[in-house]
C-alpha cells in the first residue's frame, strides 16, 4: 500500500538539541498511529514536519498529490465566528457527521460567537471540530484531548475509531491511544521506534525490550512490567485487541506482584489515620444560589482510593475544597462534616499560586522536608525530583523558568514531601507525559492513605483508584460499581433524555410513558443486562484459562520427568495438545467478549 506521507532520513535540531536524527517512516492509507515519548523528545516536531508546517534540516518529505491533510497544533489561533471556522459555508444540520461534531464539541457555544474571545479550552474544541467535520485523507492531531472532559474524550475516541482515513495522534491519554491506534511510534534520542498494536501492545513490547537488557532484579523493578501487570489484571476491555498477545504478556509478568498490596496499605493507613477519616452527614452545598450537593451522606475510610467523575459544573472541585476544609464566603454549607483527629490533608488544586517563581526547584522541595518514606522505601528530595524528571542542573532552575508541566510536577512533589495521609488531587495529570504519569502512578502505589482523585484521564483513574463515584448534576453522589464505563453510559442516557425532541424531554411526540419511551427504557435495561452477562462471562473465561494454564504447566513438568519413556511421552503429548487447543479457544473467546465490552 502506497504511503500518503513519506519521510526519508529526516533530521531536525534546535540549537545543540537533536530531536530527529535520520528518521525514515511512512503513513499509509488507513494507518492509525499513536506517537509517544517524553516531553521535549520531538513528538510535536515530527508531527509538524509530517503536516508540512515545519521543514526538516535535512532529508525529504513526500506527499501524495492532492492529499487532504488536517493538522491540529497545540496552540489555536482562530479568527472569525465559531460557525464559520467549524463548518464554513456548509449547512451543517444536513450532515450527520457535522451534527454529531456540533452536539458533542460545540453544544454550549453559539455559532455566531467571535472565536478570538473564547477561552483556551473553547478555542481548542472549535479547532478540533473544524478538522473532524471536514473531509480529510489523514488527520494529524497534537494532544487533541487537552481541555476536553471525560465524556468528550470518550466520544472523540469512538469517533476517531470509527471514521475512515489515516490518523497520526500525539497524546498522553493512554485510553485514547489504545482505543484508536493500531501502531505506536516512540520518539526517543532522535530515533523513532515503531510497534504494532495500540498502547497495551506498546507497553508489552517495551517491557520485553527492557527484560532482555536488564538483570533479573532490575527487571522485577521495571515500571513497564509493573504497568503491564496492571493492564492484564485490571479492566479487561483495555487489553482485548487481538494484537495484544495474551500468552507473551502472562509469561512476562509471571513473577510481577500486584501494583499495590491493598491489605498492607490498608493496615498502614488505618494505623496512621485511625477509623475516622472524613465523613459527610446530611450535607447540602450551594454556590450562588445553585445547589450542588443536596442532603448528601458519604464516609471516606482509611485506605479508600476513590475516583471522582461528573458533568461540568456539578461540583467536583467544590467537594474537594469542602473535604480539604478550604471554605469560601460564596459557598453555603449545611449539615455535618467530621474530620478525623489525626488526618493531614494534602490538596492538589488546579492553581499554581503556592509556587514562588524566584525560588529554585530543589530549594522549594527541601524547605518542606529532606527525605520521605514511600511504602517501604525512603527517598530523598533529590531522588524524588529525579523520578519526576528533574535531572542534574534542572533541580537548581528558578521555578519561573519552568514549563507548565514541570510546575505541575513540582507542585505534586511538594505535596508528597509534606507526607499527608489524605490526598485530594484535582486534575493531577494535566501537562504530564506518559513517562511521568507512570512514575507518579508508581509513587502512589506505595503511598498508604486515603486518596480522592478528580480526573478526565480515564486510564489514570482506573490505574490508581479502586472505585468510582459520580456527580451527575442531581445533587447526589452516585456510587458506580461499573466504574467509568457505567458513568459514560449514564451520562449518554442523561444527555439523550435532555436533547430536544427526545422522549424523556417531553417535547416530542413520544413523551415519557409512550410506547417509544417504554421501548427505549426496555432497550437500556437489555443493554445493561447484556453488559453484566458479558462481564460474568469474562470472569468465568479467566478462571478457565487459569485452570488450563495450570494443567499445561503440570503436563510440561511430567514430560520432563518422563523424557525416556516413549509411550508415556506420546500420551502426555496428545493430552498437552488438547489442553493447548482448549486454552487457545478460551483465549479467543475472551478476546471476543472483551472486544464487545470495548465497543
Molecular structure report:
This protein is an alpha/beta fold. Helix content is 43%, strand content 21%. The chain is built from 20 helices and 20 strands. The strands form five sheets. It has a six-stranded mixed beta sheet, with helices on both faces. Strands 14-17-18-12-19-20 form a six-stranded mixed beta sheet, with helices on both faces. Strand 15 and strand 16 (377-380) form a beta hairpin. The model is unreliable at 236-244 and 502-526 (pLDDT under 50).
Q: What is the topology, as strand order, of the major beta sheet?
A: 5-6-7-3-8-9
End-to-end CA span: 28 Å
Strand content: 15-25%
Low-confidence sequence ranges: 236-244, 502-526
Q: How would you state the average pLDDT, rounded?
A: 80
User: What level of helicity do the residues show?
Assistant: 40-55%
For the largest beta-sheet, the strand count, sense and barrel status come to:
6 strands, mixed
Specify Rg, calculated over alpha carbons: 26 Å
By secondary-structure content and strand pairing, the structural class works out as: alpha/beta
Count of helical regions: 20
What is the global morphology? Answer: globular
**Count of individual beta strands:** 20
In short:
With 599 residues, this protein is of the alpha/beta class. It is 43% helix and 21% strand.
What attributes characterize this protein structure?
six-stranded mixed beta sheet; 599 residues; 20 helices; alpha/beta; single chain; globular
Amino acid at each position: 500500500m502506497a504511503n500518503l506521507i513519506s519521510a526519508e532520513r529526516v533530521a531536525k535540531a534546535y540549537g545543540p538539541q537533536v530531536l530527529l536524527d535520520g528518521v525514515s517512516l511512512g503513513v499509509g492509507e488507513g494507518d492509525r498511529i499513536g506517537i509517544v515519548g517524553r516531553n521535549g523528545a520531538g513528538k510535536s516536531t515530527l508531527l509538524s514536519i509530517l503536516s508540512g508546517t515545519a521543514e526538516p534540516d535535512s532529508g525529504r518529505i513526500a506527499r501524495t498529490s492532492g492529499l487532504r491533510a488536517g493538522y491540529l497544533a497545540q496552540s489555536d489561533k482562530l479568527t472569525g465566528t465559531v460557525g464559520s471556522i467549524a463548518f464554513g459555508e456548509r449547512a451543517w444540520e444536513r450532515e450527520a457527521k457535522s451534527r454529531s461534531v456540533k452536539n458533542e464539541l460545540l453544544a454550549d457555544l453559539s455559532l455566531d460567537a467571535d472565536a478570538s474571545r473564547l477561552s483556551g479550552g473553547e478555542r481548542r474544541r472549535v479547532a478540533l471540530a473544524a478538522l473532524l467535520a471536514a473531509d480529510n485523507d489523514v488527520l494529524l492531531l497534537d494532544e487533541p484531548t487537552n481541555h476536553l472532559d471525560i465524556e468528550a474524550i470518550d466520544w472523540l475516541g469512538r469517533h476517531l475509531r470509527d471514521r475512515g482515513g489515516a490518523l497520526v495522534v500525539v497524546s498522553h491519554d493512554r485510553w485514547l491511544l489504545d482505543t484508536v491506534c493500531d501502531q505506536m511510534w516512540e520518539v526517543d534520542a532522535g530515533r523513532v521506534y515503531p510497534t504494532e498494536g495500540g498502547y497495551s501492545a506498546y507497553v508489552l513490547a517495551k517491557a520485553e525490550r527492557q527484560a532482555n537488557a536488564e538483570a533479573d532484579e532490575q527487571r522485577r523493578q521495571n515500571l513497564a512490567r509493573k504497568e503491564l501487570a496492571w493492564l492484564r489484571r485490571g479492566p479487561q476491555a483495555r487489553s482485548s485487541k487481538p494484537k495484544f498477545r495474551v500468552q507473551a504478556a502472562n509469561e512476562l509478568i509471571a513473577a510481577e506482584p500486584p501494583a499495590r498490596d491493598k491489605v498492607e496499605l490498608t493496615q498502614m493507613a488505618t494505623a496512621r489515620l485511625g477509623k475516622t477519616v472524613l465523613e459527610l452527614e446530611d450535607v447540602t452545598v450551594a454556590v450562588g444560589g445553585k445547589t450542588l450537593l443536596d442532603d448528601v451522606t458519604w464516609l471516606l475510610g482509611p485506605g479508600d482510593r476513590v475516583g471522582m467523575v461528573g458533568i461540568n459544573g456539578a461540583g467536583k472541585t467544590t467537594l474537594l475544597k469542602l473535604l480539604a476544609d478550604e471554605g469560601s464566603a460564596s459557598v453555603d454549607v449545611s449539615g455535618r462534616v467530621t474530620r478525623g483527629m489525626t488526618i493531614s490533608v494534602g490538596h492538589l488544586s488546579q492553581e499554581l499560586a503556592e509556587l514562588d517563581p524566584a525560588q529554585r526547584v530543589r530549594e522549594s522541595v527541601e524547605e518542606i522536608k529532606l527525605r520521605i518514606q514511600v511504602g517501604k522505601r525512603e527517598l530523598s528530595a533529590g531522588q524524588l525530583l529525579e523520578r519526576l524528571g528533574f535531572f542534574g542542573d534542572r533541580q537548581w532552575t528558578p521555578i519561573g523558568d519552568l514549563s507548565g508541566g514541570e510546575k505541575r510536577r513540582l507542585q505534586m512533589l511538594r505535596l508528597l514531601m509534606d507526607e499527608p495521609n489524605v490526598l485530594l488531587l484535582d486534575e493531577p495529570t494535566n501537562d504530564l507525559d506518559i513517562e511521568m504519569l507512570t512514575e507518579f502512578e508508581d509513587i502512589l502505589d506505595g503511598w498508604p492513605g486515603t486518596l480522592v482523585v478528580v480526573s478526565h484521564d480515564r486510564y489514570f483513574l482506573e490505574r490508581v483508584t479502586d472505585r468510582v463515584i459520580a456527580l451527575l448534576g442531581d445533587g447526589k453522589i452516585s456510587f458506580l460499581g461499573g466504574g467509568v464505563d457505567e458513568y459514560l453510559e449514564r451520562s449518554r442516557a442523561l444527555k439523550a433524555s435532555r436533547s430536544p425532541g427526545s422522549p424523556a424531554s417531553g417535547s416530542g411526540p413520544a413523551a415519557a410513558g409512550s410506547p417509544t419511551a417504554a421501548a427505549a427504557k426496555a432497550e437500556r435495561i437489555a443493554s445493561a443486562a447484556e453488559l453484566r452477562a458479558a462481564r460474568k462471562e469474562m470472569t468465568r473465561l479467566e478462571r478457565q484459562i487459569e485452570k488450563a494454564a495450570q494443567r499445561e504447566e503440570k503436563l510440561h513438568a511430567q514430560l520432563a520427568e518422563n523424557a525416556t519413556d516413549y509411550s508415556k511421552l506420546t500420551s502426555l503429548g496428545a493430552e498437552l495438545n488438547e489442553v493447548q487447543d482448549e486454552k487457545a479457544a478460551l483465549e479467543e473467546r475472551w478476546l471476543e467478549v472483551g472486544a464487545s465490552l470495548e465497543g
